[in-house]
Amino acid sequence: xxxxxxxxxxxxxxxxxxxxxxxxxxxxxxxxxxxxxxxxxxxxxxxxxxxxxxxxxxxxxxxxxxxxxxxxxxxxxxxxxxxxxxxxxxxxxxxxxxxxxxxxxxxxxxxxxxxxxxxxxxxxxxxxxxxxxxxxxxxxxxxxxxxxxxxxxxxxxxxxxxxxxxxxxxxxxxxxxxxxxxxxxxxxxxxxxxxxxxxxxxxxxxxxxxxxxxxxxxxxxxxxxxxxxxxxxxxxxxxxxxxxxxxxxxxxxxxxxxxxxxxxxxxxxxxxxxxxxxxxxxxxxxxxxxxxxxxxxxxxxxxxxxxxxxxxxxxxxxxxxxxxxxxxxxxxxxxxxxxxxxxxxxxxxxxxxxxxxxxxxxxxxxxxxxxxxxxxxxxxxxxxxxxxxxxxxxxxxxxxxxxxxxxxxxxxxxxxxxxxx
Length: 421
Hints:
This protein is about 35% helix and about 25% strand. By secondary structure, the protein is of the alpha/beta class. The protein starts with a strand and ends with a helix.
């Protein structure tokens, strides 16, 4: 495997304080690697050791097959460029002049800039979409535009390794995405290795090939985002409770923080019939509000099943690709019967899960308040040749069944809890 950067037994001290402890890591060429960890875990210090801005007291950093300590500053600058955390400049320069500073390792002090240098600078400005700013002064630009200028300067160095220290921490969301898109494209199309310190775990998940999690100066774990960003790892390293699920659009791991504020424990028990991701947001919101919840029947591995397990809910579950069995149906009915309220979300219905809707016609639930969340796509959701539509019609004629709009549901449940004996 082609490794662009290797770190072996690296230790770094500030005075007598051991900041980095026996770091051993390999960074593959063309990969996007994120360094995450709480404040004080050594993220920025580690990045500075990779560029030899700081020199470790023990261990080595290899750039390709070269020991970084045996390279001159100019040689390092031709291989490694840095996008720093602080992008403020004390003196104001034109954008094109700032980007040209990235050519410093190559420019002959006697001959000055060549036509080749100018072409490389122009290419870097085009790539980062700042060519239109080339004659403007740096301090006239917005934060996102300034960050693109500094990135263009780094690219003008023509590095093999790009180090980024919290490159999006003070930017609006659109600029965060813009910067990380640019960097990701460099790894995919140019084969550049990007190593970035990031605070946003979801951004790290969305862009990274590998995530390295630091705790107290040590590598706590490393691997693919889904391997590193687990409930257990985040709780231990960041001391925070989270739920972890798959983003339904991108398929990437998504981290959702759970509030530690003491919440009101509500009396109302709610059973939610959901599936296919229809319940994720509602489960998170109602659990945060302190409601006692259960769900069913859910396929094992379904995103609603996963979030139910994260919140340690009672779940009626079934093996994937199987029709709901009698055992799962009975468990679902039990959970519905001991609840005060049952909610039916707009799930897709087929022969395999039609029993989730038939459940609500069971005479044992005739006095149970049932809320059906409305949408306009019932016909599109029905893959039962109309059977589901007929059951819906039957349900809506029952006195205990109430159709509700999605945005009204939370307020209705809160009022029901307040009136609950």
